[in-house]
Amino acid sequence: MPKVIPEYREEAKKKIISAGFEMMSQKGYCATTLDDIAGHVGVSKTTLYLYFSNKEDLVIEIIRSVHADIENQAIEFFKTEPVLDAYIHVLDLLMGKDLNRIGFTHDILALSARNPTIRTIHQEHMNKIIEKAALGIMCLQKRGEARTNADPRTMALALVSLMSGLSSLALKGIEPEEIRQRFYETGNIILGISDINRDQ
Q1: Which of 103, 140, 173, 177 could form a disulfide with 145 if both were Cys (CB 3.0 to 4.6 A apart)?
Q2: Can you tell me the distance from the alpha carbon of 19 to that of 6, in angstroms, rounded to the nearest whole number?
Q3: Which of 25, 51, 56 is nearest to 38 (CA)?
C-alpha cells in the first residue's frame, strides 16, 4: 500500500475501492467490515478513514466505480459487435464469473431503498443507460435494422429490464448459457430483427 501522500492518494483510494468491492462481493455488504477491507489491503482501519468516513461512503464510491467500468466496456462492445452480441457481453459483465457479483448487486439495490444518495446514483446511471440504448435503437431504425413501429425508449426500457431480470435468474439456478439464449431470442423480438431479415 502506498504511503498516504498527495501523489499516491488516488492510487491508494482505488486499491481500497477495489478491495471493498472484492470483499463485499464475497461476504455481502452487511457482513463485510472496514476491518476486513483494511486487512485485505494491508493497512490499518485508521488509514481507511483518511479516504472514507464510513462503510456507506466507501460503497458509494464502489458503485460509481462499477458503473463506470461497465459503461466503458459497453461502449467498446457496441463499437465492434452486432447489437445483440454487444448486449450479451454486457449481460455477462452483470452476471460476473460467479454468483458473488449478482449477490453484491442485489445487496446494493436493497440499500438504495433506504439511502437517497445511492438511489440517486442508481437513477442517474439507469437514465444514462436507457438514453444511450434508445439513441442506439434510433440509429438501428434509421438504418432499417430494427422495427420502426415502436418507440426507441420503450424498446430500450424493455431490453434493459430484460437484461436486469434475466441476470438475476442466475441466483435462482438458471444456467448462464440459457440466460444468454433467452436474452438473444427475446431481444430479437423486441427489436424486430427476425421480422426485418424475413422481409428482406
Answers
A1: 140
A2: 20
A3: 51
Among residues 83, 91, 35, which one has the least CA distance to residue 58? 35
Among residues 73, 75, 37, 40, the alpha carbon closest in space to that of 57 is found at 37
Residue 196, burial from CB neighbour count under 10 angstroms (0-12, 13-18, 19+): middle
Sign of the Cα torsion 143, 148, 152, 154 reads negative
55-191 homologous superfamily: Tetracycline Repressor, domain 2 (1.10.357.10)
CA dist 47 and 25 (Å) reads 22
Q: CB–CB of 111/137 below 8 Å?
A: no
User: Locate cell 466496456: which residue?
Assistant: 73
Q: Considering the chain, tell me which residue range(s) the CATH 1.10.357.10 domain(s) occupy.
A: 55-191
- Global pTM reads 0.86
Which CATH number describes the domain made up of 1-53? 1.10.10.60
